[in-house]
Every structure is written in C-alpha cells, then in structure tokens.
Amino acid sequence: MNQAAIPSLAEDLKKLNEQQTAIIRKFSRPSLIVAGPGTGKTRTISVLIGDLLQKGTRLREILALTFSDKAALELRERVLQYYPHSFDQCWISTFHSFCARILREQYWLVGIKPDFKLLTGFKEALMMSTVCGRQQPEAFVEFGKVLCRRGFQQEVLTFISLLKSNLVDVDDFAAAIKVCQNLSDRTRARLGELLNLFRLYERERASTGYLDFRDLISISIRVLQNPAIAGTYRDRFKVILVDEFQDTDPAQFLLLCLLKGEDDTVKTAVIGDPRQSIYRFRGADPSMMTANGPFKKRFNARVFPLEINYRSARGIVEAAGRLAWKNGSQTDGALQAFSDRQGSVRLFRARDELEEARMLARKLAALMVYGGERVYKPSEIAILVRNNYQIDLIAECLQALHVPFEIAGDMKFFRSEEVIALVALLKIAASESGPERNNALQRAFASPVFRLSPLWIQAVLAELSPSVTMQNVLEKISAGNFSTLPETDSETMLRAASFAEMVNILGGCAGEPLPAVLARLLFTVSHLLQNPSSAPARNILHFRSMLADYCEMFQAQYNRPPTVSDLMPGFDEWLTYYASTLEQVNDTPVDGVRIMTVHQSKGLEFPVVAVCGLCEGQFPVNLRENLLVPTPSIEELRRRFDQMPRPVSFFNPYPVSIEDHLEEERRLFYVAMTRAKESLILTYPQRLGSDPASPAPFLHEIGLQPETAEAEDRPLTLGEVRTRLTRLSPEMLAAIEPVLQEVEQCLPAGASVHGVRPRSFTTHATDMIQLPEDYCFTASSLANYVDCPRRFFFLNILRIQDPLLAKLPHFITGNAFHACLEHLHRPGSIWELGKKPDEKDLQEIFAAAAAPLLGNIEFFQRHLESDTILKALPLYGAAIYDCGQLPARATIGVEHQFNFKLHGCRFRGRFDRLVRLNDDSVLVVDYKTSSDTLSSEKVFEQAFPTEGRPRELQMPLYLLACRMLGHKNAAAALLYIKKEPYKKAYKEMQAGYLRSASLNAGCGPDYGLPVSEAVLNGFERQIVEILDEIMGDRTFDCRPSSHPDARSCLNYDSNRQPACEFLPFCQERLAALKAGGDGHV
Q1: Radius of gyration (Cα) for the chain, nearest Å?
Q2: Confidence tier at 766 by pLDDT (50, 70, 90)
Q3: How far apart are CA 790 and CA 1024, in angstroms?
Q4: Quick check: bond before 620 cis, omega within 30?
Q5: Does the structure show a pLDDT above 60 at 6?
Q6: Mean pLDDT value across the chain
Q7: Phi first, then psi: what are they for 55, rounded to 5°?
Q8: Cα–Cα distance between 876 and 253 in angstroms, integer?
Q9: pLDDT tens digits for 23-37?
Q10: Antiparallel, parallel or unpaired: β 687-688 and 691-692
C-alpha cells in the first residue's frame, strides 16, 4: 500500500465526534457501547485499537471478535493501516476462528486431535444425510416418512444447533425429556426420535474426527474452565473487544466471561445495537445488550451511546425514531441525523400484491429516468423483502419495464455456463445410454465453454430427430465425417473433434473413482482457469470444492472413495444446496437494482431503499413455530434445563408471545428503514391472495399517511397472471379451469399458468441477440433502427413503453380524433352512403366516439381538448365535403389492416383510411394531429433523399404496401386535421383546404408530388439494405444518428431534454464508445 495514502491515526482522531472521543478517552473499565445504525461503529473500534497501540499496548495483546469474516477483514485492514508491520501478531477474527486457534494450542487438554477437521454447513448436511439414510423409516413413527428429505434433515440440524448453542449435550437432552411432565405422548415421541438422531449425529461426528462450529465454542469453554489455562489467556490479552454483541448466544457470552475473568485487569468493551438484533432464529439473545442485560449486570459496565447517524437523511432518522418499542432503552429516540437533508419517506398502498409490485417497478423506473431529488443509477437502489418468495413477482415486474436488477444470493454458481457444462459432462460419464445422457450431450455440446460456433451448433441441433441422436452426430465427428453435417470452418471442426474425443474418454466412467473423473473434467475447462480471480474460474473452483467435500465426507463415512454412480442419485439436490451456502462475492460491480431480504441487507446502505409487503402476514410474518416440536414444549424443556446445574441459562429462540414476536419483527423493520441514505419508499398491499390484509402496525407508529397507488393498465405478464389468479376463490378457479388448460397448451415448454415460475431471472452475458420468431416490421420500427439500433432494441424487441405515455393529453386527443373520423367514414354509414354531415351529426359523432376517450383526463384539460375537436370537425367536413380536397366516400376501410412480405420479412400496419379512386387506383389517408406540418416537397425529400438513408418511411411504405396488395396505382396523403385551413389559394391548395401532403404513384390529389416506378424501386432497395443490417445485427449497440430530425440522444426536444427517452440506460455505454474512439458516436 502506498504510504502516502494511509490515513494517520492523528487525522482519524480529529474526525471523531464527542461521543466517539469519549469512548477513546474513558475506556478503562468494562464498557457497553450502544451504536445506532450509521454512527461510525467500525471506525470507532479501529481508532480505539489504534489509540491503544499508540499508548503502548501491543497488537498481540488485543483480542477483537466479530461475527463474520467480512467484518473481521474490514476491521483488520483498518487497524493494519496504522501498524502494517504487525500482521502476524493480529488477533482480529470471528468467534469461531479464535476458538479454532485455541483448540489447536490446547487440544491435549480436551482429548481431541490437533489436526481436527471442521464441518461446514455443506459437510454437516452430507453427514446428516448419511445418518438418516442408514436408519429404517419404520423405526421412526413420527418422522419416518420424511426421514430422508433434505428439508427435514436441515430442521434437525437447526434443532441440534439450538441445543448446542445453549451447551446442551445428548445426556442433558435425555435427562430433560425424562423429567418433563407436561408433554403430550406425541411430543414425547418426537423428542425421543430427535434425541436418537442427535445421538447418532454426534457419534458419527466423533468417529470421523470432525467438529462443527458449535463444538468450537463449547470445547473452548471446557478449555477455559481450567483456571490455569484461563489465566494464561488473561495474561496474554490486555484488551477484549466484541463487535455486533447483540448477536451473541449464551455459549459465546460464557466464553467472553471466562476470557475476561472477574477483575478489571482485562479491559473489555462490547459494541452493538439491541435494536438491530435480527438473528434470534439462530440463537442470538436480543437482551444481551439491554440496560438490564447480562453484560451490564455482571460487569457493572459503563454505557457509551453513539447517536449521531452519518448515513441517513433527517426525515428517515426521525421516522425510524418514532417506532414504539416494547422494551425501553437508554438510547431510545436519541438517534440524530448529522445531515441537514430532509430526504424522502413515502408510504404507498396498493390493491393487492400484483399492483404493489407493478407500482414499485414503475416508481423505481421513474427515479432512474426522471429522478427524484436527483436521477439515480439502478445500482443505487435496493428493494428489501421479508421473504424470498416475494422476489419472483417483483423481478417479473422490473423485467417487464426492462429495469436491470440483481437478486442477492441468487445462486448464480450453479446457473453459470461453466458449471452447467461440467454437470452435463458428469452426467455423460454416469450413463452410457438413455434420454438423460442424450439431454446431457446436447447441453454440453451447446455450451459456449467449448467455443464451438453458435450458428453451427444451432444448425446441428436442428437436424436431430428420433433417428438421428446427438450420439450419432458425435460418432460422425469422431470419424472425421463432416460431409453429412452442416458446413462450418476448420477451427470449429477441430474443436468439435476435441469435444467428441473428450466425450469418448468420459464414457463408461460410472464405476470409476470420482476424484479421477473430476481431474479429467477440470482438464477440459483448464483454459478458463488461467485467471483464477475471474468469475468462470471461481465457479469452477467452487464446483471442485463441492465435489472435494463430497469425496472427503464419503471417504470418512464409508472408508472408500466414491464413484460417479454414488454421487448421481442426489447430485442435483446437493448442487443446489451447496450453491445456497456460498457467500455472495461483492468484488464485481452490480449494475442493477439490488433485490434482497432484510437479513441480507444488514451492514449495507443505499441511496434509495424500497421496503415492500408491509402488511400483517407478510411483514410482520405470522408467529414463528418450530416445525419439529411445539413452542410450548420447548418452553417446558427450557424450564427443566434451567432447573439443572448448568453453566448457562437456556435461551429459547422461538417467541412465546405475540408481543415478543412483534418486537422481533420491529427490529427487522428498523434495520430495513436505516439502510436508506436519501429516500425511503414503503409499500403494502390491501389483499394477500383472496384475503384482506391490514397494514403492519409499524406503519401506524411512524405516523405516515398512505398514498394510494393507481392501477396500471399495462398488459399482464405470465407471472402476473398467476398472481392475479390467486385472488380467485376455489369456485371461480374451478369455473375457468377449462380455459386455463386451453391456454396451457399455447405456452412455451416449461411455462405454466398454474405452477411456480420456472425460469431464472439471472442475467447471463451474451454476445448474440436474435429477433423474436415471426417478427413483424412496421414503418416506425424501421425508423427507430435508423435513429439508433439500441432504441430499436428497447422499443421493438423488448417492447418497453412508458406506461404514462398513453395517458398524455395529446395521445388521447389524437385517438379521439381518429375515433370520430372512423365513425364518419365507416363503410355502410349514412355519410358514406350519401348524406353530408351537418353540425348536429358532428356533435353526435363526437359524443359517441370521442367523449368516452376524453373522460380519463383531468377536468380542465378535458374541456380544452373537447373544444379543440369540436372546432376542428366542421373544418374537416368543409374541406372534404364542400371543397373536395379528398374523396368524401368510396371508403374501402378505416383502420384498415395490411400485411405483406418483403425480402423474406413480414410487414404489417394499418391505414387510417383506404379509399378506392377507380378499379386500379387507391388513396391512403393518414390523419395527423401534430403541430408540425410537412409539405409534399418536404415529404418527398425525406422519403427519397439523394444521399443517405430515407428519414420519412411511413408514406413510401404505404405505397409499397399498396403495390404488394395488387393495386396498380396508389397515393399516400397526410392530412393535418388540427391545423387551420388555408384562407386563400396557395399553389395547388384551395381556400378551405386543410394542410396536407401527398406522394402520388400513378394517381392522387393535384398538390401531391409524383413518384415514379424507378424512384419507388430505389426506396425498396434501401429498405432491403436496412433489413439485411437488422437481420445481421447481433448486438443492437448504441449508434445514435446525428441527423437533426432523428429521435436520438444526440438531439434535444423543445424542453432541452434528450430526444431519446432511453438515454439513462445507455449513458455508460455511450461513454465507453466515446472513450474508445468509436466513430458512430
């Protein structure tokens, strides 16, 4: 590290506030530091250690304990900035690492081996699976049916962990069951079976030489209960600091007491926040840090508050301070905001979960595009949920608006391309034939890991059939017979031959030792391991570690190495479970909105935080029960344990009353609120499924008035449809079941309107984007591509639309105008049959066609727009029926749909009005309500430029469409129906005519410009060139046009805003293109 960049201790001491300075100055006797969120807790500890070192304490004499490796690493790095040469003397670690260090020093005292092995969560699960798999289900009357289920085994491990965190061993548990009087027969039977599994697990653990994490604590306590050994460590450590003390369980507290002893020769400080104790379900006792808690009572500790919050805006801190806590604290209501910013705290209610998720996605998208106090990047926003099951619907709604997002702990490991490929290869090794092998062969063959040409892969897979399998293809490749396969380049042929050889080597390995097969697998992906810090390399190394752990446990329990066949029966389940145990790596930048549970957000902060689902039954959740034993029975066990001579009181992590449960949920809500720096958004649904839901009691406490979210008229996605169906009663669902079954047949494979959404929302890197199957082009989609390929991608492939756009007055007015003219010119209407519309007719047409559409806009705006239309309709009638500007009758259709193919591509659209001029000629009329007008000359110039691509595509495409539909002659006319008519004759325009332009291909009004066959053919060639470019485009990158009329981010509208609404999504890419000197920008 550059020494000039290292902050000096003196500088950091000056930055401390008075409360932080008081801790440094007065640290002599046991201290209880109550540090609220964002109050600089870690900085205070590191400066305290630095000050102690400066005053003569040696680093090896300071023991600092934390509850996570991440926290220990952060504290260690800060301290070593002050004293970088003392790394080997540092005792800053987690509780478990510290205990492991003690046991490696004092192993002889407690009869364990110095090279003991640790059971990680994954290894624990493997061991319990083996223990349960050896039992006869019939011997377990209560749990026999679920004995081999992974979920049940995890619940048993959690129960054993609860007992061990309270220093309860097998004999203690058996003794307590024996003396419990108030147990039902079934509960006693259940406890007996749990005792049996506890005994079997401990016996297996001991016989294989392993310790679990709870053993590290309990055996270290046995070591320190030896007075001489305890004295040794007290002499070694002059200072003990414990971070996040609110997460301490009884065993850890006893360990601290034994280390400190009864006198004050060892300076001790614990730091944390009782309001942020959110791990009770893991055995953490929230009372540890309270004013009447064990530490304060036992050591008569001095309390130091840290109350100045440097993280959150004032409004957020004040809202959090209004929570009504059940148990008082010496720092209640004292948290103060350092910032002068008021910030934003808003509460929204929605009709149901679906409307809540859609509203939340809409508001967050608005913050990213339009901003609040400022425009936010997606990575500056977090959505916090109480339960994981809430994430799917939120992700679906974000995806519908194409808001980028990242799901925390999303188990990307086992969804990564390299792991999918390795899994497929392992399954190939495990079987010699059958559908599973064939599927694995196809999955591996299609993997980008083996660097085969994607187009060639698609071509090969397209030729597969029941008679031509993947195995047949590989046999041809192995024989060098590429002549019967799709053509490809020599490099792809070489890689394909290598792939086929690898499959041959792996064939028939089902009975071989798994370590040997694993070595072959790793060799096939060795090119991805050249950079060990890369994501693919990490995923491969995780995969190796998982199989290594499996091999280690199998060897320990069966005294032989496992084969591939041993692994296969539960392989997919173990892969998923292992992925769930991996900590998320944060060394890569996150580009999207973070979605996570509140527990995952602990220790993090974001400018914008949204907390959703704040209703009873969701947040707070319903009272938590133990799935194995009723909570009252655990309370009975607790009383019996406490009557026994034991070193600690038994702590029951399951709340025994509604008040205790709500206090636990209130702490979780407090943590969620205090993650926000600038803006806090709170939401709740008024219904959960078909049941009404009440807002969370915390919302009443903080005193916010809810704002009602308007329902959104965006079409539902498949996941949203399923959520909507949950609101229906069983009778209603039964009534529509035939319809659902019919819909089910039309959905893609794997999708369902009944089941849980199967697809992953994980964003995979891709180098190829393809148009949707049977994609239809329109004039506007081609114009978007000409303006910018990325704009085309957003609007026409992803179909992102601003949900508020359709509600703007000028859009509604345009639709209302079109509705009136459609009513007037509908074939068969009295006006088409000869009647001239009078003023009364036009008013009736307005009332029938336009008024219903205008009813959705604001009162005054509605009257302004109504007046505009009522004034324009008579002017239109005069121009058409009196002046004969365009034919008044002979309408073929209004809103007339057309389809045609050009260059193999489908086109579709609608003519506002199609008029027959004679047997060979038609006129297309396109109504415009915009304020800008174009003359025939201007339209011609933009449609058929002498240089460059056409800017006007709609009118000449109408001419092409008419030609494709068999009309010999055609004209396309624009009619501006909101503009004042000509007062006097102008060129070919007569007085009374509306502003208009026309392109005439063999027919049309006098004021139009003629379009020759050659000119129209030239336009068609240019369209074909654009189509070729689109069909070959696989990135649709940012290439904005600089043409003054282009709707691109390089141009600005009348409000000096970028003409393209997607600029916020492209800013980083544009910057990268500019930095790289790309000529397109």
Answers
A1: 36
A2: very low
A3: 20
A4: yes
A5: no
A6: 85
A7: -85, 5
A8: 87
A9: 999 998 899 999 999
A10: antiparallel
DSSP 793: I
Q: Long-range contacts: 909-912, Cβ < 8 Å, 24+?
A: 909/778, 909/779, 909/957, 909/958, 909/961, 911/958, 912/818, 912/821
Give residues with Cβ within 8 angstroms of 307, minimum separation 6. Answer: 19, 36, 39, 331, 334, 335, 336
188 CA to centre of own chain = 44
Distance CA 740, CA 752 (A): 9
For 353, which DSSP code?
Answer: H
Question: Which residues are within 8 A (CB) of 392 and not within 5 positions of it... i.e. 6 or more apart?
Answer: 719, 756, 757, 761
In the chain, how long is the greatest CA-to-CA distance?
Answer: 114
Dig out the tokens for 964 from the structure. 């494709």
**DSSP per-residue codes, 263-287:** SSSSEEEEEE-GGG---GGGT--GG
DSSP string, 812-824: HHHHHHHHHHHHH
Q: What is d(CA 1001, CA 1016) in angstroms, rounded to the nearest whole number?
A: 8
Instruction: Check residue 710 and report its DSSP letter.
Output: P
The structure tokens listed for 1070 are: 């544009």
DSSP 8-state code for residue 615: B
Long-range contacts of 831-837 (CB under 8 A, 24+ apart): 831/888, 831/889, 832/889, 832/891, 833/889, 834/889, 836/877, 836/881, 836/888, 837/877, 837/881
Q: Where do we find the tokens 């679990």?
A: 212
DSSP assignment, residue 1042?
-
775-800 mean pLDDT: 88
Q: Which two tokens stand for residue 481?
A: 């017979």
Strands (E), 523-663: 593-597, 606-611
pLDDT tens per residue, range 136-181: 999 999 999 999 998 899 999 999 999 999 999 999 999 999 998 8
Q: What pLDDT is stored for residue 78 in this prediction?
A: 83
The identity of residue 31, as a single letter, is S
| Number of neighbours of residue 1021 by Cβ within 10 angstroms | 9
Token pair belonging to 165? 């965190």
Q: Which residues pair with 384 in a beta bridge?
A: 596, 611
What is the arithmetic mean of pLDDT over 67-72?
84
User: Is the per-residue pLDDT at 1 higher than 50?
Assistant: no
CA distance 789 to 766: 17
Question: What single string gives the DSSP state of each residue in 412-457?
Answer: GGGGSHHHHHHHHHHHHHH-SSSHHHHHHHHHHHT-GGG---HHHH
pLDDT at 209 over 80: yes
Contacts of 838 by beta carbon, 8 Å cutoff, 6+ apart: none
Q: Give the distance, in angstroms, between the CA of residue 115 and the centroid of all CA atoms in the same chain.
A: 42
Supply the pTM of this predicted model: 0.67
Please choose, from the candidates 630, 619, 667, 670, the residue with its C-alpha nearest in 3D space to the C-alpha of residue 652.
630
CB 549 within 8 A of CB 123: yes
